[in-house]
């Protein structure tokens, strides 16, 4: 009888641990997906040129929530004109990213990125370092940017 009780207790404990592990793995997967999506959007934002600004903005809009997409659309025309007028060519990459907080539905991701920018006013590409706070929202299983802030 004692062995039966111990056996049942062990099974209950093992089941609880397996469930907990599954939840941890799922949460880690969600955080990784949020970081990946945020990194992609920041890379798109800091890697833009006068020649491909329309395609670049379309890609940015695709990765944004409806409200953030609306904000971007309001600024897109002026930004594209400035890129073309100044002959901007920028390349960048994410060097580090991490989640500050997350739930199944939203996450705050901090990103460090580096890149170069050249324009009609520079003789050579200039080095740029970026720190970006990205608010992400899980919309129907897809992580989208709901807010973005460059940190000085």
TrEMBL record:
This is Mce-associated membrane protein. Its main location: membrane. It is found in: Membrane. PANTHER family: OUTER MEMBRANE PROTEIN RV1973. GO terms for cellular component: membrane. It comes from Nocardioides albertanoniae. Keywords: Membrane.
């Amino acid at each position: 009888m004692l062995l039966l009780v111990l056996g049942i207790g062990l099974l209950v404990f093992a089941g609880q641990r397996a469930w907990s592990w599954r939840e941890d793995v799922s949460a880690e997967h969600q955080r990784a997906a949020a970081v990946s999506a945020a990194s992609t959007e920041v890379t798109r934002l800091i890697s833009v040129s006068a020649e491909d600004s329309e395609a670049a903005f379309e890609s940015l809009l695709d990765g944004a929530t409806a409200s953030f997409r609306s904000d971007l659309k309001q600024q897109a025309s002026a930004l594209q004109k400035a890129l073309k007028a100044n002959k901007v060519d920028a390349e960048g990459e994410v060097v580090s990213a991490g989640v500050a907080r997350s739930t199944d539905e939203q996450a705050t991701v901090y990103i460090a990125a580096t890149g170069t920018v050249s324009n009609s006013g520079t003789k050579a590409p200039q080095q740029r370092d970026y720190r970006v706070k990205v608010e992400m929202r899980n919309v129907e299983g897809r992580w989208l940017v709901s807010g973005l802030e460059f940190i000085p």
